[in-house]
Design brief:
The complex is a heterodimer of chains A (213) and B (253).
Chain A: E1 4-7, E2 10-15, E3 21-24, E4 28-40, H1 46-55, E5 62-73, E6 79-92, E7 97-101, E8 105-110, H2 115-125, E9 130-144, E10 148-160, E11 165-178, H3 182-185, E12 194-207
Antiparallel strand pairs in A: 1-2, 2-5, 3-5, 3-7, 4-5, 6-9, 6-11, 7-9, 8-9, 10-12, 11-12
Chain B: E1 19-22, E2 25-37, E3 41-52, H1 53-57, H2 62-66, E4 67-68, E5 76-87, E6 93-107, E7 111-114, E8 118-122, E9 128-141, E10 146-148, E11 152-154, E12 159-163, E13 169-172, H3 174-183, E14 197-201, E15 206-209, H4 219-228, H5 234-250
Parallel strand pairs in B: 4-8
Antiparallel strand pairs in B: 1-2, 2-5, 2-7, 3-5, 6-9, 6-12, 7-9, 8-9, 10-15, 11-14, 12-15, 13-14
Classes of the chains: A mainly beta (213), B alpha+beta (253).
C-alpha cells in the first residue's frame, strides 16, 4: 500500500476493503473504482476524547474513505508531504493532516509542560497548545505552505518559529520559549518574540512559510 | 543582468515566442488577434491594442462567430497588433494546449487566452466553457495539471476540464443516498462529508484535474444560477431566498 506523490500538491492513495483511510473533509479531488466517503466526528476514540478535542480546538472534520479504488487527495492548493511511520509516532496539529491510514491511532495531547503559565503563552502566539499524536505503522500526509523540509536532531536543540513548525517524529521535547525584551514591549521587536525549542533525537518538519491556516 | 538573480533578463527579441517564460507566465507571440481573459495580461512589448470583446465586435464581425458567449463577454478582451503579450494568473501554473480539430471544456475562471481560430461556447455545466476547432489556448492550474482517463469521478472544485469524452453526470455517494432516503434529504444537514456529489465521467477521453482551491467569486456563475431561478414560481423563489439568507448568516459555503 504505497501513497504516490502525483505532484507537489496532490497524492494518489490506493484504498481497499481492508485498508480504509481517514482524510480531511473536502480534500477528495477525484477517484476511480467503487469508493464511498463517510463523515466521522473528531479525532481519537469515544465521546470523551471528542469533547476534549473540541475544547482544545484540536478537531478537524475528517471522513473515512472506504471501498476499492484509487483516490486523489489535495487541499486548497497546499503542498503535501508523505511521511512513513514505522511503529513510532508523530506529533502534528490536526488541521495539517490531509490523509492517513485509518488503522493508525490518534490521540490529543498537550505540548510541553508548565501548567497555566505556559498555556497563557500558547494562547498569546495563537499556536494551539494541544496537538494530535499519530502512532502505529502506516503513512501520513501533511499539509504545508510551500512544502516542508526535515531537520534531523541527534541530541541537540533547534529553535523553530511557531508559525513555521509543522510536525515532529521521534523522542523530542518541545518547549515554547519567550524572548521578550524592552524592544518588543515598545513595538520595535524583531518579530521573533516566541520560539519553539525542540531538543532530543528525532526529526522536525518545518515549512518554508510563516503562514498559518 | 543582475548578479545573483539566477534568471536571465529578457528584451523584446529574447522573450520566448509562444512559450512559457517560467512555469507561471506565458509569452504569446502576437501577430493579429488573440482573446485574453481580463486581468491576465501582466506585460507586453510592441504595438498592441486591448479592447473589450463587445467593443471589438462592433468593428470586426468575425468576433461574434468566434466568441459565442454573451455571459462572459464582459470578462474578455481582444488583444490586437504585433508584439509579445505575457499572461499569468495569481502565481498559478500556466500551460498551453494545442487543439487539432478537437473540443475541450474548461473552467472559465482558469482559461487565460485562446487563438481566434478556436471557437468559444458556453458549456451546459455551469462555470465551464467549451473550445472547438484548431488552435492554441492557455489555462492556469493550481499545481501541475493531472490527466486521468474515465471511468473517473471528480470533485467539482478540483475539476479543471475534460476533452473528447461526453459531458459528466452527477454522482451521489451511495451511503449518503441510502441515509437520505431513510431520513429525508431535509434532515441531512450536518451529516455531510463534503464529498457526496461528484462529476461522473464515462466513455473515452481525458479529464484534467488540479489541486482544489479556495472558491473564486465568479460573477458570471451567479448570473447563471440566477437565470435558472426563472424556472421557479414566485412562492418557491421566496422560499429559496429565505434559505439562501439563512445559509449566508450561518457563514457556510
Amino acid at each position: 500500500m504505497t501513497y504516490e506523490q502525483v505532484n507537489s500538491k496532490v497524492v494518489r492513495v490506493p484504498v481497499t476493503q481492508s485498508r480504509p483511510v481517514l482524510a480531511r473533509r473536502g480534500s477528495m479531488l477525484g477517484y476511480s473504482g467503487q469508493v464511498s466517503f463517510r463523515p466521522v466526528a473528531g479525532q481519537g476514540q469515544g465521546v470523551r476524547s471528542m469533547v476534549g478535542a473540541a475544547l482544545a480546538g484540536e478537531s478537524t472534520a475528517m471522513m473515512v474513505t472506504e471501498g476499492d479504488g484509487s483516490v486523489l487527495y489535495g487541499f486548497r492548493g497546499l503542498y503535501t508531504t508523505v511521511v512513513q511511520l514505522t511503529g513510532d509516532s508523530m506529533v502534528v496539529e490536526a488541521d495539517r493532516l490531509l490523509v492517513h491510514d485509518a488503522h493508525l491511532q490518534t490521540s490529543i495531547e498537550m505540548v510541553g509542560q508548565g501548567g497555566v503559565r505556559q498555556m497563557a503563552r500558547g494562547a498569546v502566539t495563537g499556536q494551539g497548545l494541544f496537538t494530535t499524536r499519530v502512532s502505529g505503522q502506516g503513512t501520513v500526509v501533511l499539509l504545508s505552505h510551500g512544502g516542508t523540509f526535515p531537520i534531523q536532531l541527534n541530541g541537540d536543540t533547534v529553535g523553530v518559529d511557531p508559525q513555521a513548525y509543522v510536525a515532529h517524529t521521534g523522542a523530542l521535547q518541545v518547549e515554547l520559549k519567550q524572548s521578550l525584551g524592552m524592544r518588543d514591549l515598545i513595538g520595535r521587536g524583531s518579530g521573533e518574540a516566541f520560539q519553539l525549542h525542540v531538543s532530543g533525537h528525532g526529526v522536525v518538519h518545518v515549512q518554508a512559510s510563516e503562514e498559518k491556516f | 543582468m543582475i548578479d545573483g538573480l539566477g534568471t536571465a533578463s529578457y528584451d523584446a527579441q529574447s522573450l520566448p515566442a509562444d512559450d512559457n517564460v517560467n512555469p507561471y507566465a506565458f509569452s504569446i507571440a502576437l501577430a493579429g488577434e488573440w482573446f485574453v481573459s481580463k486581468g491576465a495580461m501582466i506585460a507586453y512589448y510592441g504595438n498592441v491594442d486591448f479592447a473589450g470583446v463587445s467593443q471589438y465586435a462592433s468593428r470586426a464581425s468575425w468576433v461574434a462567430a468566434r466568441f459565442s458567449s454573451p455571459m462572459y463577454a464582459d470578462e474578455w478582451v481582444v488583444a490586437s497588433g504585433q508584439g509579445k503579450v505575457v499572461v499569468a494568473d495569481r502565481g498559478h501554473d500556466v500551460n498551453s494546449y494545442d487543439l487539432e480539430d478537437g473540443n475541450l471544456t474548461i473552467k472559465q475562471a482558469n482559461l487565460l487566452g485562446f487563438a481566434p481560430t478556436l471557437e468559444l461556447k458556453q458549456s451546459i455545466v455551469p462555470g465551464f466553457v467549451t473550445l472547438i476547432g484548431t488552435g492554441k489556448f492557455l489555462a492556469s492550474s493550481n499545481g501541475p495539471v493531472i490527466f486521468v482517463e474515465p471511468p473517473f469521478r471528480a470533485d467539482p472544485e478540483a475539476l479543471l476540464g475534460w476533452s473528447d469524452c461526453p459531458s459528466p453526470s452527477q454522482h451521489y455517494d451511495h451511503h449518503w443516498m441510502a441515509q437520505s432516503f431513510m431520513a429525508g434529504v431535509q434532515g441531512m444537514l450536518g451529516r455531510e462529508s463534503g464529498e457526496e456529489r461528484q462529476y461522473d465521467f464515462t466513455g473515452a477521453g481525458t479529464i484534467l484535474l488540479q489541486s482544489s482551491e479556495k472558491l473564486v467569486v465568479d460573477a458570471a456563475l451567479l448570473r447563471t444560477v440566477e437565470s435558472h431561478t426563472n424556472l421557479l414560481d414566485a412562492q418557491s423563489a421566496g422560499a429559496l431566498g429565505q434559505r439562501l439568507i439563512a445559509r449566508s448568516q450561518q457563514g457556510g459555503r
